[in-house]
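User: I'm writing a tutorial on reading structure tokens. Could you give me a worked example: one chain, its sequence, then its tokens, then a sentence or two explaining what the tokens reveal?
Assistant: Sure. Here is the example chain.
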Amino acid sequence: MLMPINALLFIVLLMPVILGMTMVSHNIYRFFGSHPELGFSSENNAIAMAVVFFIISGTIVAVPLTGIGGVFAVVSLLVTLAYVGVALYYVKKWVLQTIHTTHDELTKCASAISTTSFQKSTMGMTALLLASGKRTEILSDEQRDEIVERIKHARAFDHLPTDALVGYFNTYLGDIEHPVCMYAWESTLNKVKELSDDRYQTDIAMRVAVSIVGGRNGRNIDTDRLQQVAGTLGLDPSKYTN
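And here are its predicted structure tokens:
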């Protein structure tokens, strides 16, 4: 009777470690999946990296079970404690989200879409709504940094790699504020239009972009610019203005 209890206790104590290893591996998968320039161009390669990391981590954590002591045991203990810390972080995060959940309809809709075209569309629209493309109205570093922070903390992007989103945003903003091209804004708008034919996805992307640039109520957005973006994308501009 004592053996099953000990085994059960061991499994319970091991669960936080496994959770920590799983979440770290998941973030490794997301990192390599969003950085194809590192040589992991396919999803399978990114998954393989995450699996390899998980196996190596499991081997390190299991060192004490083999009877090996000394430095290896100390390293294993430190790694194990680190994974427990990661697990506690995510448990705290999930509990707080459950208790203080404020997921509105838009957040729920956006959290169900993770395609690259959705990410690029949202960031392209954000840049288009934010910048005029006029050489006399270049955004300041403070304005750019404020939007970047909003992107990083937007709950609609909790399931997406924020580094990739910020990269898309900076790319589109750089295209719009091109120092030579006179029609950079219009050209960028056409590029965004070609990203997706899914009207629903485009609508969600537009709503998220409006909330990022103008806040929860969509304020401080140039009305003419908003109407032009929405109209070109085949959307009803009145849906995004208060």
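What the tokens reveal: The chain is about 70% helix and 0% strand. The chain has two domains: 2-99, 105-240.
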